[in-house]
Write a structure and sequence with these properties.
Blueprint (H helix, E strand, L loop, with lengths): L6 H24 L7 H21 L5 H28 L6 H21 L4
Helix pairs in contact: 1-2, 1-3, 2-3, 3-4
Keywords: Membrane, Transmembrane, Transmembrane helix
Protein name: DUF423 domain-containing protein
Pfam families: DUF423
Length: 122
């Protein structure tokens, strides 16, 4: 018997790991001049949500559509939000509506996590 991850957990764990990877880079870049610190905000957003995705992924009683939706939304939403920040910091030109869309997807992801937790089975 091995302790390999279940096949359905590999992809969420990979993307959560990538969120952590990029989040640390954004935090580091945001802490050095001439950066304004806006990158640090994006990094914090990614680093906050990466362990949340990993936690949701490992919950056995929490399954079905709410689990999958929470995973997807908590991966995509923060990535879109942080991507907007990276674009804005790099070019000086924000992409209209990208940050609110990313934030809205993230909010929906937390709502799915909450509903899924209530509906969890033993």
């Amino acid at each position: 018997m091995t302790d390999l991850p279940e096949p359905e957990t590999k992809l969420p764990y990979f993307f959560a790991g990538m969120m952590g990877f990029v989040g640390v880079i954004m935090l580091a870049m945001g802490s050095h001049p001439p950066s304004t610190g806006i990158l640090a905000t994006g990094g914090q957003f990614l680093l906050l949500h990466a362990p949340a995705v990993m936690t949701i992924t490992t919950q056995r009683g929490f399954s079905g559509v709410y689990k999958r939706a929470a995973q997807a939304l908590l991966l995509v939403g923060p990535a879109v939000f942080a991507g907007q920040i990276a674009i804005h910091a790099g070019s000086g030109n924000p992409v209209p509506f990208l940050a609110p869309i990313g934030g809205g997807l993230t909010i929906l992801g937390w709502l799915c996590a909450a509903i899924g937790a209530i509906r969890a089975v033993k």
